[in-house]
Specification:
The complex is a heterodimer.
Chain A: H1 5-10, H2 12-15, H3 21-30, E1 32-36, H4 42-51, E2 56-60, H5 85-96, E3 101-105, H6 114-118, E4 123-126, H7 131-143, E5 147-154, E6 157-163, H8 172-175, H9 195-214, E7 223-228, E8 233-238, H10 265-269
Parallel strand pairs in A: 1-2, 1-4, 2-3, 4-5
Antiparallel strand pairs in A: 5-6, 6-7, 7-8
Helix pairs in contact in A: 4-5, 4-9
Chain B: E1 2-6, H1 9-14, E2 18-21, E3 27-29, H2 30-40, E4 50-53, E5 56-58, E6 63-65, E7 69-73
């Protein structure tokens, strides 16, 4: 792949790294990443993936930008309030890096369409804000044999993991077989979240996606990373494939996508 | 003593992030440790949890020894 002079300058701090180099940068430019949700996690992840020159970025979100989003969803801005998040994200990315082709899905993905969307990408990131979508994304990524970089948050804490069940590593269901009982985990707007925490977790997702594309270092596959911003502590817990996993286990019972009901009354009422 | 760590909403439900549990024996299956925690913390919801012993994922039958660290990690939904 031949770089333009502008590309050599734009990516010079990557190209100078022996672990990336011109070869790695060309890989990034040829790669495609899908991000579910242009929210707290999707915003920083998308910005760094775009800056890195990931050639094709898909972003799906069916919501509109709300003023209360701007405390953490840094891909949007005050002038975009009331406009679709997927299109706002697309605009920001296009202004940031014209090398990136952005595909915006202005809809909430469901069991009928998610596999067809994931099929077009090398790696997929989950930045969704509810359990039904998290399970849908995990199952769809498994069926489509895509590496899933998962991030999630609660108040001041976050979790990050890389799920690659086809390579002997666990999937999300090996850790969490089913959505938690209603009422155990506050969903969506019921719990507050530190805005800058979304930056930490979303950027970690981007780092893991970029490492997966480049094939460098050791990713979080086989680990769950826990971050506590109040105590500034990172912990890595080793996690393993569950041979009894209903999705990726030997005698799996889940053969097609499952639709769970949203347990968040606030969203339903909105 | 066993050092127990509660993550996420469980810290709120139990009122602590860390707790020293005396099992009064050198080792016990994780299932027994969880029962002791439910007895001590009535606010700890009965649900399947992802757990780890010394930063390795564990299951109900895994053995917890005196001096081990047990982490209880609920999933988060926020994004």
């Amino acid at each position: 792949m031949d770089f333009t002079e502008e590309q050599i300058e734009r990516y010079s701090r990557h190209i100078i790294l022996p672990e990336v180099g011109g070869k790695g940068q060309a890989k990034l430019l040829r790669s495609s990443v899908f991000v579910l949700g242009a929210g707290g996690l999707g915003s920083p992840a998308l910005l760094y993936l775009a800056s890195a020159g990931v050639g094709t970025i898909g972003v799906a979100d069916g919501d509109l930008v709300d003023l209360s989003n701007l405390q953490r969803q840094i891909i949007h801005n005050s002038t975009r309030v009331g406009t679709p998040k997927s299109l706002s994200a697309k605009k920001t990315i296009e202004d940031l890096n014209p090398d990136v082709k952005v595909v915006a899905y202005n809809e909430r993905l469901d069991a009928a369409n998610i596999r067809g969307v994931l099929r077009d990408y090398d790696i997929v990131l989950d930045g969704s804000d509810n359990f039904p979508t998290r399970f849908l994304m995990n199952d769809a990524a498994f069926f489509e044999k895509k590496t899933l970089v998962s991030g999630s948050m609660f108040r001041f804490e976050g979790q990050v993991a890389v799920f690659k069940p086809r390579d002997g590593y666990p999937c999300y269901r090996c850790l969490y077989p089913e959505p938690p009982p209603k009422g155990l985990v506050p969903s969506c707007q019921e719990a507050g979240v530190l805005g800058a925490l979304a930056g930490v977790i979303g950027v970690l997702q981007a780092v893991e996606a970029i490492k997966e594309i480049l094939g460098i270092g050791e990713t979080l596959a086989g680990y769950l990373m826990l971050f506590d911003s109040l105590r500034m502590s990172f912990r890595k817990v080793r996690v393993r494939k569950d041979p009894q996993c209903a999705l990726c286990g030997e005698n799996s019972s889940i053969k097609e996508l499952v639709t769970y009901e949203e347990a968040c009354e606030l969203r339903a009422a909105k | 003593m066993i050092r127990v760590l509660f993550f996420g909403m469980l810290a709120g439900k139990t009122g602590c992030r860390e707790f020293s549990l005396d099992m009064k024996k050198p080792q016990a299956p994780l299932k027994e440790v969880m029962e002791a925690l439910h007895a001590r913390f009535s606010g700890l919801p009965r649900a399947p949890y992802m757990t780890a012993i010394n930063e390795e994922q564990a299951e109900a039958s895994s053995v917890v020894k005196d001096g081990d660290e047990v982490a209880i990690m609920p999933p988060f939904s926020g994004g």
